[in-house]
Amino acid sequence: MSSPLILLPGDEVPSEYLPNSSAPLRLGPGLRLLSQPPATKPSKHVLTATQAGILSTDNKRNAVSILSTSNRRYVPTSNDLIIAQVHHSSADYFHCMITPQSPHALLGQLSFEGATKKTRPQLKGGDLVYARVLSTGLGPGAEIELTCVNPATGKAEPGGLGPLNGGMVFDISTGMAARLIRASSSSSDQQEGVAGLVVLDELGKKLEKAGGFEIAVGRNGKVWVDCSNSEDDAVRATVAIGRCITTIDEHNLNPTDQRKLVTRILREMKIES
Amino acid sequence: MGGPIAVLHPLDRADGSASYKCPSTGSNILGSVNAPIELPGRRDALKPEEATIEVFVKPGTAPGGVGERYVEGILRTALGRVILGREKGYPRRGVVITLAIVGGESVGRGGSYLPLLPALLHTATLALLSASVPLSVTLSATVLAVNSAGEITREPSAKEVTTATSLHVLAFTSKGHLLLNESEGTFTFDTWDDVYERALAICHGSSTFGSDGDVAMAETTEGQPLDGIVRDTVEDHIHRDYAWKIDAA
Amino acid sequence: MASTTAAAASQPAAPSLALPPSQFARLQPHAYLLAHLSPPASSQQPSIRANGRAPSQFRVTSANTGSLTHTNGSAVVRVGDTTAVCGVKAEILHTEDIASWSVSHSSSSPSNKRRKLTNPTEKPGEDREDGSKDDEDDDNSYIEDFSLLVPNLSLSTGCAPGFIPGAPPSALAQSLSHQILSLLHSSRLVRAEDLEIWYQRPNFGAEELERHNEGEQMDVDAGPEAEEANLEAREIKAFWVLYIDIMIISLAGNPFDAAWTAVLAALRDTKLPRAWWDVDNETVVCSDLVSEARKLSLRGLPVASSFGVFEADAAAGWRAVVIPDAEEERKLAESERKGIQRRWILADPDGYEEGLTQERVSLVVDKTSNGKVKLLKMEKNGGFAVDRKELKDLVDISARRWDDINQILQRC
């Protein structure tokens, strides 16, 4: 693909940017099929953008979509992995906070791996859970339901769902959260990192001796970091990782600067690597 | 006279925001958009099949009055035609646009809001773009004053407004439709026709009269078209947001 | 008319499914109006609105002035089923009660020429074409600066469904109030000179004059002022403030036209008693002789006319909106010329039609004595249908409306 194409609402998608296959085209967010194609070329798809953003074409899935401004308020969508904070609990549910401005989401007391009436986790207000959005309901005022278990298998899938003990949570932008999820979920054998992020690989290499670290990224703009294996340095290393991620988010650093930043912060915090 | 200065997303907490400053009229607007959000307590007032658009204009110094209600009405009608309120997730919810007049002349009782209207429209459009609210087109607007000698002044200063015989605000969509026209004062239709030509040239750069040579002339005399300023502002912001992706590609 | 529509609605199905036209109008308002405007070619029916009017026809308008006896001027204007009552009440505002008066006034002499030079809010040289009538333009800023015109519009309880008692002024009422005020200002309908209450200084000796000057904060520059005052020998001591209250007692669409016509008729009816400054009692005294009261001399006769645009696309109500290019618009206009009309500009829309139109046009026109049309306001918002060509046609329609309103107001 040539240089990225930025579209504004009302702009038409040029046909050379559309995947040329006969299979049905999938339209992602921000694009719309004009229901009145101009009479001159009725057979062609005429797509217009409805949001401002970069046109992204996926030839494999035969899909096009608009990547819009990244740092937005989190709107819960099914299957998103998020970090929620328990606010209070009632007979059947934990009432959790996803973002400060949205109403509480419900997390069933038994929606944990292997949970029964007797073995269910005892969560207090302020505790953190790594959960998946099960449903968002329809219409306004609908409740958002969370789960920490795959209802079909009864396992915590993907791994790591459940209460988060220890560690620390850092706030990041939702755009950064999406990048971190892509970076941490794909294989790390690429040279330049995934989604332009090398920070996790870099930190992983440097902190290997100190015992490594655990990380959970929530799409709602939260990242949880824990270094309980590194004994004495646990708190310092956690703060260092958090600082690296939030600084990269704020200043939009490129891979080279990310490496420099990691080295600098680890030196400042006196963590030997 | 410098061009307008627009900044996208200056506010962290809002879904979308923009600030817009027009040096020649002296208006300075800060706007935020929250969408889609639940509007509390008025379920029966919400339309079942589309979004409810609310516009609030906050004057810089005084509390809002009838003039603000009026300009809010104008903005709501104009933007309502551009916002796609039937897209997924928007029906029965609200699009709330708040525009604060940060600097410039304040509007007195019964005073004209027209000199501020283009800045308000641009701020609202940019804020809607930064909130990724689905829109059918973007728009650009300008204000023109005609004085007693028949001279047309683009984006007049407060002093030029008071000596003008008529004031005109025109807003065009990015496809060249006249979306909004507000004219007051004493004028003839022929005067307005000239104003229309000039406004179209200011907003879109390409004027409708004559050959290619004329078009180039119009562009140089009017500076960068306002339509292009809106586009550049958004493109710059997206470039910054996706620097990691664009650099890698 | 109604029978064709009912037939179109029910198809040739069972007769029990046929709806009376009134119900069809409620259930399918858009299709109902469209069926009226575009009757099938075979039926030989003319295109006509559901209320029986042609697209550019206004509703029957009637005006009656002077029915409220306790006001200085009043009018009841009825445009179809929309009825507006307007009363004008004049009250006296002493210049010593105006905080900014002494500042703005003592720095300039009472002469109009000086004021024009010092005040930047003047609009010099405007409207000189029909000179004889319009030369005293200069002191209009008094009206804006001191708020001498105070219009207030209320949509009374029960004027239309949905207006409940005790509710605060709706956004509609507030913006209509603002529109009327800003039109009063920008059209400069009322002359400031009509609202001024003067003190004619009797030609006494110098000592009397001096004594007088002390009482009124002009002593700072009393020296040069006294000489000039000898020449002028008169000054403004008070203003009339006109409280213009408009009440829409029945709202069936297009409130602005009715309200503005009511304001216009009431101001034409307004009589102010002769008033002067009584130097002994230091107060303004009014004459109770009806013969001495004088009418306002208004500048021109601005007439408002509003329009709504009805789009034929029945699906526009629920389908995602598609906005054609400007070029496609032109093609659309071409097809219109061939007889397939897709949109109608409806003059003076009633309540039913207002619910079906998004795009609005509002024009205020005046005609000079030599028949030249000038525009005082032109607003268009909410759609893409009306562009230059359409606006030009609407100006012509509004000019014809001006003749009608002019006749109606002359009669009453």
Automatic annotation (TrEMBL), chain A:
<feature type="domain" description="Exosome complex exonuclease Rrp40 N-terminal">
    <location>
        <begin position="25"/>
        <end position="72"/>
    </location>
</feature>
<dbReference type="Pfam" id="PF15985">
    <property type="entry name" value="KH_6"/>
</dbReference>
<dbReference type="InterPro" id="IPR041054">
    <property type="entry name" value="Rrp40_N_euk"/>
</dbReference>
<dbReference type="GO" id="GO:0071051">
    <property type="term" value="P:poly(A)-dependent snoRNA 3'-end processing"/>
</dbReference>
<dbReference type="GO" id="GO:0003723">
    <property type="term" value="F:RNA binding"/>
</dbReference>
<dbReference type="GO" id="GO:0071034">
    <property type="term" value="P:CUT catabolic process"/>
</dbReference>
<keyword id="KW-0271">Exosome</keyword>
<dbReference type="Pfam" id="PF18311">
    <property type="entry name" value="Rrp40_N"/>
</dbReference>
<dbReference type="GO" id="GO:0000177">
    <property type="term" value="C:cytoplasmic exosome (RNase complex)"/>
</dbReference>
<dbReference type="InterPro" id="IPR004088">
    <property type="entry name" value="KH_dom_type_1"/>
</dbReference>
<dbReference type="GO" id="GO:0000176">
    <property type="term" value="C:nuclear exosome (RNase complex)"/>
</dbReference>
<dbReference type="GO" id="GO:0034475">
    <property type="term" value="P:U4 snRNA 3'-end processing"/>
</dbReference>
<feature type="domain" description="K Homology">
    <location>
        <begin position="167"/>
        <end position="230"/>
    </location>
</feature>
<dbReference type="InterPro" id="IPR036612">
    <property type="entry name" value="KH_dom_type_1_sf"/>
</dbReference>
<keyword id="KW-0694">RNA-binding</keyword>
UniProtKB/TrEMBL annotation, chain B:
<dbReference type="GO" id="GO:0006364">
    <property type="term" value="P:rRNA processing"/>
</dbReference>
<dbReference type="InterPro" id="IPR050080">
    <property type="entry name" value="RNase_PH"/>
</dbReference>
<keyword id="KW-0539">Nucleus</keyword>
<keyword id="KW-0698">rRNA processing</keyword>
<dbReference type="GO" id="GO:0016075">
    <property type="term" value="P:rRNA catabolic process"/>
</dbReference>
<dbReference type="GO" id="GO:0000177">
    <property type="term" value="C:cytoplasmic exosome (RNase complex)"/>
</dbReference>
<protein>
    <recommendedName>
        <fullName>Exosome complex subunit Rrp46</fullName>
    </recommendedName>
</protein>
<dbReference type="InterPro" id="IPR020568">
    <property type="entry name" value="Ribosomal_Su5_D2-typ_SF"/>
</dbReference>
<dbReference type="InterPro" id="IPR036345">
    <property type="entry name" value="ExoRNase_PH_dom2_sf"/>
</dbReference>
<keyword id="KW-0271">Exosome</keyword>
<dbReference type="GO" id="GO:0003723">
    <property type="term" value="F:RNA binding"/>
</dbReference>
<dbReference type="GO" id="GO:0071051">
    <property type="term" value="P:poly(A)-dependent snoRNA 3'-end processing"/>
</dbReference>
<dbReference type="GO" id="GO:0005730">
    <property type="term" value="C:nucleolus"/>
</dbReference>
<dbReference type="GO" id="GO:0071028">
    <property type="term" value="P:nuclear mRNA surveillance"/>
</dbReference>
<dbReference type="InterPro" id="IPR027408">
    <property type="entry name" value="PNPase/RNase_PH_dom_sf"/>
</dbReference>
Automatic annotation (TrEMBL), chain C:
<dbReference type="InterPro" id="IPR050590">
    <property type="entry name" value="Exosome_comp_Rrp42_subfam"/>
</dbReference>
<keyword id="KW-0963">Cytoplasm</keyword>
<dbReference type="GO" id="GO:0071038">
    <property type="term" value="P:TRAMP-dependent tRNA surveillance pathway"/>
</dbReference>
<keyword id="KW-0694">RNA-binding</keyword>
<feature type="compositionally biased region" description="Low complexity">
    <location>
        <begin position="101"/>
        <end position="111"/>
    </location>
</feature>
<keyword id="KW-0539">Nucleus</keyword>
<dbReference type="GO" id="GO:0034473">
    <property type="term" value="P:U1 snRNA 3'-end processing"/>
</dbReference>
<dbReference type="GO" id="GO:0035925">
    <property type="term" value="F:mRNA 3'-UTR AU-rich region binding"/>
</dbReference>
<dbReference type="InterPro" id="IPR036345">
    <property type="entry name" value="ExoRNase_PH_dom2_sf"/>
</dbReference>
<keyword id="KW-0271">Exosome</keyword>
<comment type="similarity">
    <text>Belongs to the RNase PH family.</text>
</comment>
<dbReference type="Pfam" id="PF01138">
    <property type="entry name" value="RNase_PH"/>
</dbReference>
<keyword id="KW-0698">rRNA processing</keyword>
<dbReference type="GO" id="GO:0000176">
    <property type="term" value="C:nuclear exosome (RNase complex)"/>
</dbReference>
<dbReference type="InterPro" id="IPR020568">
    <property type="entry name" value="Ribosomal_Su5_D2-typ_SF"/>
</dbReference>
